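Example 3.2
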Amino acid sequence: MFIEQFRRLLDSKEMLESGSTLIAVIRGAMAFTAGTKIDAYEILSLLGTGGMGEVYRARDSALKRDVAIKVLPAFVSRDSDRLRRFTQEAQAAAALNHPNILAVHGLGAFEGSPYLVSELLEGETLREQLRHGAIPIRKAAACAVQIAHALAAAHEKGIVHRDLKPENLFVTKDGRIKILDFGLAKLTQSPPEQHYSEATQASATNPGTVMGTVGYMAPEQVRGEAVDHRADIFALGAVLYEMLTGKRAFEESTSAETMTAILQDDPPALSQVVKAAPPGLQRVVQRCLEKSPEQRFQSSSDLAFALEALSDSGSSPAVAIAQSSHPRWFWLVAAGALAAVLALVIAWWRTPHPVAVVESITQLTEDAQLKTNLFTDGSRIYFNEGPQRDTTIAQVSITGGAVAPLETRLPNPMLFGITSDGSTLLVHSATAVSSPGDLFMLPLPAGEPRRLRISWTGALDLLPDGRIAFTNGNDVSIAAKDGSNTRKLASFPGGVRDVEASPDGVRVLIIRAPEADGTFDILEVAADGTGLGHVRKGARGDCCFRWSADANHVLYIARAGSRRDIWAFATKAGLFRPSAGPMQLTTGPLSYSEAISSHDPNQIFGVANNNRAELARYDLKTREFATVFPGESATDLTYSADGAWVAYASYPERLLWRSRSDGSDRMQLTYPPMEVWEPHISPDGTKVAFGSYDGDAFIIDVNGGEPRKIAEEARFPVWSPDGRSLVLMKLSPGRKSYDFQIADALSGARTPIPSSNDKVGTVWIDNDTLLASTKDFTNLADFNRKTGKWNDFLTGSFSNWVVTQDGKYVVLATAGPEPILQRLRVADHHLETLTALKGFTRLANLSWTQLRVAADGSPIITRATDNSQIYALNVKWP
């Protein structure tokens, strides 16, 4: 009772306005007492209070081990940004498995307060050790090696700490370093004159964000620029300097002065403060603290290698250097010289190639429309706006401004290229009744489109002289500008996903169709059909390959967890050195869907969004929409039959959560790297079936546990009304085709649904009847399990549909420029219009409306709250 009274007081507006001192008093008073139960954990004692949460020692009653529990108070958890960052801390650490990174066991919520369960550490923070002065050289170097290896593991996973400092480094009793608060962005908004030990952060989505702790931030962090893993290397250099000297590398009387020092000044030379510091160690620290990221170590692995190279069989760096700098015998001199030459060769070989750096990002558009298929003539950017089947052509200046439509009589025109002089667009008119050959050359700025007669399937691109590279089945060919004189370049069993002609017209990049594991080959062939060769292997999720303007690089999009970033690789290898690997150009928070080069090779145009969405419920009585979970970014909401429980996927992370329908008793069910698609709660409310991004189907208990795989290479599992069966989409080996199957929920036995490989979106009407659409979304058909036959159900143009849980209605979202929400009564096929959907922005890269239905039959729509925009990125290439 005492705790609850203080919780209510702490959560009140008066409490929040009363000042930090009183908050600290109340927070201390609200500490859980020994014996309090939090799910499967029993609180033993309060370990400490820091930031906006308390840390407790607890006992895991299931695994019989002591753990640490960090609790976020309810008033903080109601701030969606703070809650997201608290969750981000758990997700980032959980994605890593390294002895020098704090192990996270779980994440949950107790009485409205989220909590994080981690391993229990015995020891003290590095900050506490530094209060006693400098650390011996050998021990400091050994600690730095451990930190560097941990950072290397994190960076390899695409995770940048951004706030490395002695407070976030824990030294256990056995001397092991543990990185804490991994991936956590501090939440305190620091004014210019705030004390240097506090973190600063502006809006996570605005340019100029300053994130980190003053005194350990890299110069690019101070300037609010995009940062990468090299910012962590700078911070480690500052920590190592402090361990060796006992003094901070950058410390002034105010945070503003400290930031200025980071940008302009170098700390006192290590040799001036620590006389015994070996020159090699001084050079390592100095390289870490370089102002320019390009001058620092380019990877934490190289930093660890450099530190380890200073030691000799466990000797301190000082001893090792002293031994090697005073040889006594001639043969030792010769051996030492040979070793030095060999070390220089190895160092030169290992030195990373220079990488490209994004120096600035400028937003060019502001309208809330989905954007795809970018092309530029050097002065304007042309692109498709709107989802597939409802698209138009739009344009904007390369300097930004208003988006203007490009008038054309072609329905649903999809852009495939632009001539080098910017006079003509290559367009496919993607009508429902068109054949794949409906290609047109559309004059700019206006004019009548000219039809081309090319037999093509899948991929197209324009060469600078107007010729057309295209695929037809397994063949890659080139045709004249009018579509005549087709000449085959190469043939590839298994198919080709894309072709991209180089800006000089000399080469054609060929992207093979993915293999069973999602990887694929990237090849190159001369435009005359000679010199076919392998360029590199593409990873699953890589897409949208485009040449840079000077043809020296290829831009592409790669997945980084739930986010997509712009990457590039060089098209030419260096002399006597291994070819440069892919270079990551962006690191969030924006997620990019495609990127093209301007006519200026130092400028890139990209389509990106911040990936936020909300669930909107249409009330059938009031005829109005209302947000289901305000502040929650989520999609794919599913209800239990009695309406008491819901499950949904967070967006864009696509982690599975469940809660009561009012949002209480919220629990996370899945963790990275698994991404959840189309979850469905079983009719009895005890399980959730879902598909994964990797293409497998799973079932998980609503109270948590390990997901159980029910089918490989299968997606979109949906429960039958009686809960005995699931319908799912089964992919063929290599994912070249699919069909729908009915799986027994207990035995797993599967029965194929005949003639289903031309259907999409199969759902249940009742236990014996399924509903699906044709691939062109023009007809709905129902399948009777008893007769084994499909029957026409409804003709129209649909974006998505769903059946109410009682099977009495089908709720439909139509396609087209004026979409509407409809409801069809199954008994007599009476169709009624519920409301217009114009203005409901769909999720980026999806051509359909995310549509679900509540237990009472109310339609639920996922709408994007921020959609794709075009950005200009200025790039400094190596």
